[in-house]
Fold each of these.
Amino acid sequence: MRLILLGPPGSGKGTQAQRLVHKHGIVQLSTGEMLRAAVAAGTPVGMQAKEIMSNGGLVPDEVVVGIISDRLDLPDARRGFILDGFPRTVPQAAALDELLKKKHLKLDAVVELRVNESALLERVETRAAETRARGEEVRIDDTPEVLTNRLAQYRALTEPLIHYYSEKRKLLTVDGMMTIEHVTREINRILAAIGAVEPKPVAAAPAKRAAGAARTGGGATAKKAAKTTKKAGKAGKPASKGTKKPSKAAKKPAKKTVKKAAKKTAKKPAKKVTKRRAKR
Ligand code: AMP
């Protein structure tokens, strides 16, 4: 599985990426983490990035694209990866497209975590307090002033990626204001719906049906999910409620037979299968 997690600072990308790593045995590739390691090690890249990062600016595209390109070649990325914090600009996304093409790799989905901006400052402050409580060093860019700049960078340079991936029918939007647990569940559900992961096995027969429907409907479902999230994903508008649209799209393909899943569109969620899953 190859994913991109998209969202502003404090939207929970890192937390959700770690959960996906544990569940699916793939690697998390965080350019922020890699850059912080480079800064700590005092490498030439680190020296170049240090000042920019402490101000909340973006490190030049060619630097991060180079880092990601090298990282994708390491053996542990073969089983799949989650890109966290990359791409952050349209040129980075275009460079990633090229890289993946050259390496004969296909992106499964881009999961956007949509959050209210007003919650971000509080989240980042909580993150800093928790880090301090663990006796670890707090990120120098986790301050209100720098966060303001990071958010401005996100709006200006990263948010256009919502449209970029929506056009490519890769975008799935999840309400990042739900609890961590809910967000994780929702992500896993939509990934199963587009066929990026195997749905959890239920009882033998229904599990087979659900898996088949999700897989077979994969292309169509991804398109529908992308369509739905395209509507939900108009840049700049923070989520206020649940992930109704993506979840409908996510639920639908798991419905009964492949034929039915293909025929019936967005109106009927996969009550049977999801109910069974919910019970377990
Ligand atoms: P993050 O940990 O993802 O919040 O990233 C921390 C900082 O690293 C950002 O504020 C940027 O200065 C830098 N950074 C991380 N990823 C990228 C990227 N893809 N492009 C440019 N700068 C980045």
Note: Residues 205-280 have pLDDT under 50 and may be disordered.
Amino acid sequence: MKTTSLQINVDKLQGQIVIPGDKSISHRSIMFGAIANGTTTVSNFLTGDDCLSTISCFRKLGVEIEQEGDKATIYGKGFSGLQEPSEVLDVGNSGTTIRLMLGILAGRPFFSTLIGDQSIGKRPMTRVTKPLLSLGAKIDGRNDGEYTPISVRGGNLEGIEYELPVASAQVKSAILLAGLQAKGETTVLESSKTRDHTERMIRHFGGEIQVDGLAVKVQGGQELKGTHVQVPGDISSAAFFLVAGAIVSNSEIILKNVGLNPTRTGIIDVLKEMGADLQIVNEKAAFEPTGDLIIKTSSLKGITIEGSIIPRLIDEIPIIALLATQADGVTIIKDAEELKVKETNRIDTVVHELQKLGVKIESTNDGMIIYGNQELTGGTVSSHGDHRIGMMLAVAALICEKEVRLENIEAISVSYPNFFEHLQSLLS
Ligand code: SPQ
């Protein structure tokens, strides 16, 4: 576990960053490349640890994948080309890998076992395994199937209609991936719209999917065809620099090639509602839309964030909490219980770590209350092995008065391996 002193008390951030590939889309580019027939090429693939875990799992399922830097080529042979693995599939720290793979493996007539790191071992899996069991897969795991290790013997699936008890793109995606291998039709009914990258990928790979409001339907037995995937920059990574630019004095940052899928842009809505000086330029339509973002030092006001916007910014709540410390007035975050089952309990870790820096912030059952106009002091903080907490604390340090030491800094490479290089480029 590495501990580092962070850059503090910065007087400006200036420059331009090309945001690395989207994590959710990079995972799916490998998965869809593997289950499609023919060759898939991927550009701007994210080389974060999580996406490399996805590649390693599919290689163990017999899929030939070449990857060099941000380019990947997958030689897919369809669902039936996946082979029984002779080793356990290790997803590392990646919830997306394990949950989406469960959907794929649910339809495969062979035995496989999935494991992950300590954090994965605490994340709930019955939200995925329960609907997959009703499609007909045989799945078991520790604590009645709730936790890893999880074993799957798949095959002979029948389509179902399933109402999601939680707003989760991972659960929706797992059911759709199983549904593609099931007899008949599979319908997922969402409670709130979650990120729709899986739906877009199905179409991009030549499949059909119907989306009618919160109802998503796929027919089983479709053939997907290999294609090219241009991964946009990750708005969840851009969020750290959007907030840094807004809260550090004398700043102007240009963020290039950011994914602007409307199911992910809650952070932009929040920044605008809080009064940030944010501009979107060079918007481009594609299977995943993109644009460039320009953020300048801003005067902010506190707001309440709740309801259907929450799934559109769920991964940005740690950095939004920091943003709110610099706003005029109180910010309240509600309806965000899902934060408790991420890489860490992100309500507790955000509140405790920011308190260590002298911030006045309180946790609630489903979110937090953050007081504005605060001066941050300094201290020793920890990522607790959670990449988003680590990056939020590194941005917090920029406005701290005294030394800040960050423990377990290496977690950041899960989603943003060159985060510190990019931050450094804005300081010089
Ligand atoms: O992959 P993992 O570990 O679950 O990653 C996180 C993150 O912060 O990077 C969550 F901890 O993102 C999830 C996100 O919260 C990625 C994701 C996806 O790609 O489908 C969906 C969201 O999770 P969920 O549980 O709401 O479906």
Note: Residues 23-24, 50, 94-96, 168-170, 173, 195, 314-315, 338, 342-343, 388, 415 surround SPQ (CB under 6 Å).
